[in-house]
């Protein structure tokens, strides 16, 4: 259960080796001693390292095999988790190579399957759990890239736009059933996903996102931008005429 | 049957349950028989601060319709009631007969079933103990479908005492027979005094409580230094007919408990913040007389000043608040003082700060009161509150004390086990009568009960 101070007893990380997901789990571990974490990710060294790290942080960790591409298996995996899922973090996603993504069918399909189809299949399964549980929070890691896709990475942006819309709607559907969905729209995050890329303005860190997420869950918010100033920036960008928008160096 | 979002009185941790209003015993039996994996729990008037009367994804049985008075025996001073009756309604019915409930908690808006489940205490705990001490018998529907008559001296005293303070997890209390007190009036003779600091307060309570049936102190949580713990002590006894002015004597057993207003809506932000709480604390202290004896007060003035304003919990806004009530043994006054200092220094300011001494404990393994010092504070939820309360938990455990389950909304299974050394006794009885864990609540999930 989530207690009166907003602290969970059990957190599920879907895409459990994501830097942001792990930062969120670490932050909750600091607030809720003995936190149970289910780490759903592909088996391997990265997952092992994540288990070790969270265990060292005082969590009781269980690893579950989860492949974002294997969307047919998502429902069964979520159903197999016995404990109440207090907070589920949907953190899997691919950035891909933006030029390959719109010229290569296979690359585009992989992005679409992981970032959108996988997010939807996992989201439907989580929604079913919340209907049964009568409570629960889903934290969906979207992106500002989904708010107004730009030329430079519009395939990625389009998957996040779809994912963002799905979770926003899921939040509406689950509201009456005790569920709560927080859609998180970070800007550029320094993480392994963006290693080697040039940081955009207003860049943040996994820890920065985690801090904002924990606060927003406690306050019952439904969407946040990280950093918060991104909200204003995106609001401006969203309303720019297309002819102006395409000239921006972004 | 509807899906309803429920919270406790503190307004935190909302979850959704199927709420049913069963009318007959068969309805209760079928609710238990048809309970899915999320189980069932009963709910009365929802005055528990945390999550014991909500059941995420499961069924909540609203028993407030079970509010009949079944039998009164004025000679034996006993009353048999259905469990959903409120103490308010019961007191109103008993007073004209010169009868009075032996234990009345800080609000009358609780049901008899809830009073048993939380084993509530009042300002007279040091004399009369808790609610469970005054039960002659109860009728309990257990998950097997049987209705058992239980009493302290009956066939199954373990189940009786596990039900007292058992937070509704041993069965559904259907009826209770309560031993009442006889009173001549509905008024109290009250002595009020102010103390300048915590040391004086504790000293006055140790030396003075024996002279009073009812005793309580309010203190200021917002001052530190030499005026840390400045307080107002209110103590009294039930007034006899001779104590009243002649004009009051003719209506000595009238129930005087006005309600002067309600908080109509929940404001978007908490009205209780550091500034308003500090101001309230200063005002409350200043308005109390330095020393006044023998004042005649009515039930609401003396017992339930908060009942004057309905739905006052809404003032805390959408995030709600935590009430933290703990007790530490008599000898652990240093831990008690440290807790008070810690709260005062924390920047989290409470307005409702009630302090008193408990008397003898009840035989119930989960009953809260044990001999010692108890303090209740109401703290709005805001960042940093978790760290403060976790620290207080550690202090309380170290001192051999515990927190009150009717108030708790955030402690952990591990901490609870350290606070209640007889928890295994309770769990053994619970597993005996409810082996499949049909009786479930958010509290039972959170605390692994």
TrEMBL record, chain A:
Domain of life: Bacteria
GO molecular function: oxidoreductase activity
UniProt xrefs under InterPro entries: NAD(P)-bd_dom_sf, Sc_DH/Rdtase_CS, SDR_fam
Annotated keywords: Oxidoreductase
Gene3D superfamilies linked: NAD(P)-binding Rossmann-like Domain
Family label: Belongs to the short-chain dehydrogenases/reductases (SDR) family.
Protein name per UniProt: Decaprenylphospho-beta-D-erythro-pentofuranosid-2-ulose 2-reductase
Protein species of origin: Aeromicrobium yanjiei
Automatic annotation (TrEMBL), chain B:
GO molecular function, one term: D-arabinono-1,4-lactone oxidase activity
Sorted UniProt keywords: Oxidoreductase
InterPro entries: ALO_C, FAD-bd_PCMH, FAD-bd_PCMH-like_sf, FAD-bd_PCMH_sub2, FAD_lactone_oxidase-like, Oxid_FAD_bind_N, Vanillyl_alc_oxidase_C-sub2
Record-linked Pfam families: ALO, FAD_binding_4
Domain (FAD-binding PCMH-type): residue spans on this chain: 12-183
Record's GO cellular component terms: membrane
Source superkingdom: Bacteria
Record carries keyword Translocase: no
Protein name in UniProt: FAD-binding protein
Source organism of this protein record: Aeromicrobium yanjiei
